[in-house]
């Protein structure tokens, strides 16, 4: 790279000023994949809770960029990834696909085990795959501030990261119990220049109302959503961002599976026989599974997909498939999904990213059609698998990711595993900021 | 990669059983570089403190593998990296070299700024570059257990990681104050299967003696060294490992600079004009600098090298160049180095890896010869630079690394910076487990 390749335009927002002339490796995907183009029947639409009619794009415009709404409703197969987004992606993409040779030997399995590792992102998880385009598409429409909610903080930190790189403001409402008990993610948001508030806060009407009614509350994701949405709805220069569940998030995450297809081919594998991915709101599972599922549907390949959820929050394996609210407070459109009901209170398991009462409508639809098999794993078993993974492959996986590892390991050591079967594990993040969860487990 | 490339031999120790048939990218170096081959005069040897005579290889054999002692005394320019070590290196090597375009624009500098980023390793720093070969060379000589000391825990975690992957035992004595205040690194060692003891402990004679004399002590690196060395010296199947200072560690770390030379050429840069690296014990600075310094000496290229130390622990800029003990207790051979004296007590700065009274003899020698320029940076300035780096380049740097960034930024914005000057920053690690150090700095 020499000086002349560096673009000099610097105007913001929009236009070529957002491109920095950074070299992007050709292996970083140029387009996202949209499963809606290949499904045998479309996923049921979100409903306006007042009318029970399908929601209209204009209803979403106070909160979301038009480009993101268009993605939400799109049935195009390939959606172009803007160059400024690919420039940021190239900080960590393509993420590695590795053969887990030490793990295979330790297990004595006949299978070949690979893992696709999203923990290499600057925030340590797959979340920036969507925070970066969400920030970008808002910025080009003139939005300079984003709000969001976060539980343990993975999504909040990822949005803070994206906003820092595009010069945007970001305000995050973090569930008060996490805000107080896990200061590292909050500090990460602060270093990236975002403001992080403990929720419920005194800064919003809904926050003040909550604090009045429940003075001792330690908060919930539902309360935090209410605060973030309220602030965005009141200011035309501010939008809201969501880190999972919605279709446009599933689309952004497809970079994982698209890279996986290329990398398996490079490794000389015709196809993955089975993919294991953890699923909370569904963004990680959709990201690694959908591009391969689309290939199954279009080309007749026969990869199996297993979505692994915690036994303590079993929306897919024990929930109902019906319309329900996406948030606890009942403010969002109604979504057709596997749900435990908005009054389900998940226990305080360590995998904070898997504590959600529902499941992405697109993932739910694929499960309902029998295209993805859900299983549930106990927390003790998942950490046991995580420790073995760390000691053989050298990486401490996120508590969420240990669920996928446990599912894969149980399969790889079962009587039914095929000779030379190709198993792929989606490792959605590293567990560096979750090491306390491993205490007493080794 | 297909099944037939997987080697089936599994015997340990030594032999092909340590090779797993993992594909190693060609860009992972095949040889380490040894600056001792190119220096105009050899570095003064370590002395036996009893006789003040140069130490003999046999004196070191109770503690170190013969292969590592041979490296310590070698004047060969290129030393082969065994394939099993390269297989582990390939988990994160080559580490990225990136152009810091957002940072350049924010500064408005005329320089081109690159950074070489070691934070992508599974432990988050450059330390595994040496822990992996140290574990390997011990294992092939029949050693099954390693001991070491650690302060904040970067080195301890890196040795634990290496021992896990080679199936070895590892015991780490961690300074009690860090053990109690910073549990994450200790948990990391535990997940990797190592035992981590608070030092001083009841497990060793020297530990018990210390606790008797100073019942309230929170420990020191000197005490922890004594404990780790005592355990290794008493058991023929156990050796001791050190994460910095010694020549063989500097040699292992040369992979950083060797990759940098290739990557600069790929980027179309003839040479780096100046390299900034933080220096505590010297392993990071030697790693990125020595291969380029060797090129200066052999081929007449003109790269400048700046080693950045904290103003609070200024061994190179304010210390004396003389023989001194490597540890506080005076148990090691005497080393010719820049030193603040073994009774110097560094203040509790956040960059724990830079709190050392001395400096690697090889780095000291190069500084003494005028081949490396030392500068000192205040802690507040270094964190300010770290925050700017995070907000522009997306990575939260380790407190140690912020020193190099501060030095580089001050230069890039100075009147003296050349048009199109190529500045390289060695970013030795990420600051994810040091986020508490950033509190109140944004």
Q: Percent range for helical residues of chain A? A: 25-40%
Q: Most extensive interface: pair and counts?
A: A-B, 51 and 51 residues
Strand ordering within the main sheet of chain A: 3-4-14-9-10-13
What would you call the quaternary organization? Answer: homodimer
CATH class of the largest domain in chain A reads Alpha Beta
Percent strand of chain A equals: 15-25%
**So, CATH architecture of the largest domain in chain A?**
3-Layer(aba) Sandwich
Overall outline of chain A:
globular
Low-confidence stretches of chain A: 1-16
- Assign the CATH topology of the largest domain in chain A: Rossmann fold
Average pLDDT, all residues of chain A: 93
Number of helices of chain A: 17
What structural class do helix, strand and pairing data of chain A support? alpha/beta
